[in-house]
Write a structure and sequence with these properties.
Chain lengths: 616, 266
């Protein structure tokens, strides 16, 4: 797909970044270079590798759960004996017990959101790309940057360790609603809370760093409206992390007080545990946790989606060879999205019996927030119009992102209205909805970004054929997993049931002489099987990616140019891979981020740091 | 490799990196304490008014601590101002004072905590409640085996726990010591965070605040001691560090300005 035209700025790639940096070049040794590095690119890669490992781990938890859902009470093939060996009685005879199912469910959500996707988006992409795209030589606070990775890593270790303590990991869902989360008699929840405090601290340090970097370290000439959209998306997402996470930290500290000191800020009067009145002071407010939790967790959704939109925008502009349609609308749309995301949180709580006035407010704001989302998606769709599109692997993932995110977003509308939400709340419909946003949505954008920026980070290309295999299989299996869940949810199947809904199935009712309206039909129940095998397929579909990724690091074809995709933004105007300090000479910016196919120009792109001929 | 604007301000934003960084950090801190203050409000409005405690904290000590922190805000500012006019010795004095004030604050705060952990509410088998400070437990005191006795002083004896809620205008407790046998004790609990939600949120808020004081004090101690070597090599950068730590310190003071009336006076 790389055309014969060469980048005008760096016709031959600089494989060693140290040219021109001799004065600052000194051998730091292994530990300083790879483990305790303060180079934003190394930290970005550290985040990337750790988070990809957690992504795979979180997925494998789910794979085992899907087996249990489709075949409740039957030993898990391959993994079952291993689970029994590692975790003991909760996986006796290789069968996943309901307790273990609850642990895996809670940790799947926690790991995917806080240890995989957010660290990939803000940790990996934010760290690696933001300084490069704004022409800076590092983040504003490099040592703080290293610390935020270390906090993230410690948080991950604490979460991971909690699987192996007596009683196992947290079991009350990634939302950790009290009183349930506080009265389950294991320390898993305490580990969860301590892990979260580390992860939140890491996010706070990281997001303050990204914002300060964008505000302070933009290259000369890089005005706000010349920023690549990806930088804008990171800017808004970082503000969301910065301002929305602390209330959850507050709630986490309060729940930790409840767990550790025995206070009862989230435990109501008259709470009964196991048929006995709990020995607590009571008077606490369980709904308070829900408010503080969703005050973070709704903006968090936009932290998960905004940088993904940024990645997709970069890939689309590059591969359509034309400017993004409606750049300013994208920018203002994402700012609007960021602002609105702070006042929609209680639409997760319609079922708590809030008054109609409050519900009306949150329904209204929820409908309003769909406007900037649709503006952004429309801009990205319109950007395709009339383009001469290069269908390479990153572009395939970016293109698939658009309808997948569209499905995820539009299926959210019935959840935004309390009338329809009361039926759909906590069913598989909700699961399908947000997974469409995050799995074939955000994770596809992450894949697009990996294939797209891999040559910059490694100096080698990934294999295009296996990339396409990875894409098409992932695309098919993702939809086979999540589309049936809409049907299951509409039929009333609840989430978080370790038997996959058997106890509510029509056949169970019949067999046990239970007279009840409905019951989940055999067809709906059969979909559990479809989803299981689609999930297995999705797992297998990642093998080409994993092999391609590691093979290409060492054996992939070397790039012949510093700018193999012929892109305009500054990260491509560096040596490949960029050394510590990034740019050979401090860049100046003379134009907007997407000057593709400018009429009258000899090549179809003009890099941001290329001066105007008239002025030069 | 030099990162720009570590010392001098970027012309179009008017600040150096660390100053922006600390303001961003403080924004997140506002949300952290904002979340906790919201929790306080919701816990309080969710409690029947006659059960919400008043006058449980020592207003004199609280006022003293407020004065200490307010003074430390002044000394912090003067320390930075002294560096601005290149009087390093004055800086050492003022920031030394800041440190002493911070330590005094923490000492007073810990005596207040200590007081709460020695303050017991004892429900007796006859239903009466004895509420007072622990003098000693006899050697064989054991609530489960019902042996031994506990000695309290400054004791109030009331019929219902509600009578202990508002102590602002209550009669002072009795002076003498009271001994209560373990056999007569139904339930015995000190005024820890588990006692009720007022104390729960009180401990959460003030411990988190005290940790901020401690963190700030460690930074100031560093800048006062080993970190001050930077004054000789990079005076401007050192002054910036003092300014940034001062911004944080003022925020921590400000939190206390809210904590004091909310927890002590209302």
């Amino acid at each position: 797909m790389v055309t014969k035209m060469q980048s005008t700025t760096h016709a031959t790639p600089h494989f060693q970044a140290d040219h021109g940096h001799g004065a600052h070049h000194h051998d730091e040794g292994f530990w300083r270079t790879y483990v305790f590095s303060i180079d934003h690119k190394v930290i970005g890669i550290q985040y990337g590798i750790t988070a990809l490992a957690f992504l795979l781990f979180g997925f494998s938890l789910m794979l085992m759960m899907r087996w249990q859902i489709a075949h409740p009470g039957i030993s898990i093939p391959l993994a079952g004996p291993l689970l029994e060996k590692l975790l003991g009685s909760v996986a006796a005879k290789g069968v996943m017990s309901p307790d273990l199912y609850n642990s895996f469910g809670a940790m799947h959500g926690t790991i995917m959101v806080f240890l995989a996707v957010v660290p990939l988006l803000s940790g990996m992409y934010g760290n690696y790309l933001v300084p490069l795209q704004i022409g800076a030589n590092d983040m504003a606070f490099p040592r703080l940057n290293m610390m935020s990775y270390q906090f993230y890593f410690i948080g991950g270790i604490v979460m991971f360790a909690s699987f192996f303590i007596p009683g196992g990991a947290a079991q009350a869902g990634w939302t950790s609603y009290p009183p349930l989360s506080e009265v389950i008699p294991t320390d898993g929840q305490t580990y969860w809370l301590i892990g979260m405090v580390f992860l939140i601290t890491s996010s706070l340090l990281g997001s303050a760093n990204i914002i300060a970097t964008i505000v302070q370290l933009r290259a000369p000439g890089l005005t706000w409206m010349r920023l690549p959209f990806f930088v804008w998306s990171q800017f808004v997402a970082s503000f969301l992390l910065l301002l929305a996470f602390p209330p959850l930290e507050a709630a986490g500290v309060m729940q930790l007080m409840d767990k550790v000191t025995g206070s009862s800020m989230f435990l109501p009067t008259g709470l009964s545990v196991g048929g006995k009145i709990a020995n607590v002071a009571g008077g606490g407010n369980p709904l308070l946790w829900q408010h503080l939790f969703w005050f973070l967790a709704h903006p968090e959704v936009y932290v998960l989606i905004l940088p993904a939109l940024g990645i997709v925008a970069e890939v689309i502009a590059n591969n359509t060879r034309k400017p993004l349609w409606g750049y300013k609308s994208l920018v203002y749309g994402s700012l609007g999205l960021g602002f609105m995301s702070f006042i929609v949180w209680a639409h997760h709580m319609y079922l708590t019996g809030m008054g109609t006035t409050i519900a009306t407010f949150f329904q209204t704001t929820t409908m309003i927030i769909s406007i900037p989302s649709v503006i952004i998606l429309t801009c990205l769709l319109m950007s395709l119009w009339g383009g001469s599109i290069r269908f390479n692997t990153p572009m395939l993932f970016a293109l698939a992102f658009l309808p997948m995110f569209g499905i995820g977003g539009l299926t959210g509308l019935p959840l935004g209205f309390s009338a329809s939400d009361l039926h759909l709340h906590d069913t598989y419909y909700v699961i399908a909805h947000f997974h469409y946003v995050v799995a074939p949505g955000t994770i596809f954008a992450i894949f697009a970004g990996i294939y797209f920026w891999f040559p910059k980070a490694s100096g080698r290309m990934m294999n295009e054929f296996w990339g396409r295999v990875h894409f098409w299989l992932s695309f098919i299996f993702m939809n086979l997993i999540f589309m049936p869940m809409f049907a299951q949810g509409l039929a009333g199947m609840s989430r978080r049931m370790s038997d996959g809904g058997v106890n509510y199935s029509a056949s169970y009712f019949q067999a046990n002489g239970i007279v009840a309206a409905g019951g989940l039909s055999n067809n709906i129940m059969y979909l559990n099987n479809t989803i299981l095998w689609a999930a297995v397929g999705l797992g297998l579909a990642q093998i080409p990616f994993i092999i391609n990724f590691f093979y290409s690091i060492f054996k992939g074809p070397r790039v012949t140019s510093d700018n193999p995709w012929q892109a305009t933004t500054l990260e491509w105007q560096t040596p490949t891979p960029p050394g510590h300090g990034n740019f050979l000479t401090p860049p100046s910016v003379y134009r907007g981020p997407y000057e593709y196919s400018v009429p009258g120009h000899p090549v179809d792109f003009i890099a941001q740091d290329q001066p105007d001929k008239a002025k030069a | 490799m030099e990162i720009p604007y570590t010392v001098e301000a970027r012309p179009d934003t008017g600040v150096y990196n660390a100053k922006l960084g600390v303001w961003l950090f403080l924004a997140s801190e506002v949300m952290l304490f904002g979340g906790l203050f919201s929790a306080y409000v919701l816990l309080r409005v969710g409690t029947p008014p006659e059960l919400w405690p008043h006058g449980w904290l020592n207003v004199k000590l609280g006022t003293l601590n407020t004065v200490l922190l307010a003074s430390s805000a002044i000394t912090t500012l003067l320390a930075w101002a002294a560096l601005k006019v290149k009087k390093f010795n004055h800086y050492r004095i003022y920031h030394g004072l800041t440190l002493l004030l911070a330590v005094a604050f923490l000492v007073i705060k810990s005596t207040e905590y200590n007081d709460k952990f020695h303050h017991y509410e004892i429900v007796q088998t006859d239903g009466k409640i004895a509420d007072g400070h622990l003098v000693e437990k006899s050697a064989d005191f054991d609530l489960v085996k019902k042996t031994g006795e506990v000695t309290l002083h400054h004791v109030r004896v009331v019929e219902k726990t509600e009578e202990l809620a508002d102590l602002r205008h209550a009669k002072p407790p009795g002076e003498g010591e009271v001994k209560i046998a373990a056999a007569n004790i139904k339930k015995m609990q000190n005024y820890g965070p588990y006692h009720n939600n007022y104390l729960g949120i009180y401990f959460t808020l003030t411990i988190l605040h005290a940790l901020h004081i401690l963190g700030g004090a460690i930074v100031i101690a560093f800048l006062w001691g080993p970190g001050s070597k930077m004054w000789k090599t990079e005076p401007e950068r050192f002054t910036n560090r003092v300014e940034v730590s001062g911004l944080f310190w003022h925020f921590v003071d400000l939190v206390w300005i809210f904590l004091f009336p909310v927890l002590y006076l209302t």
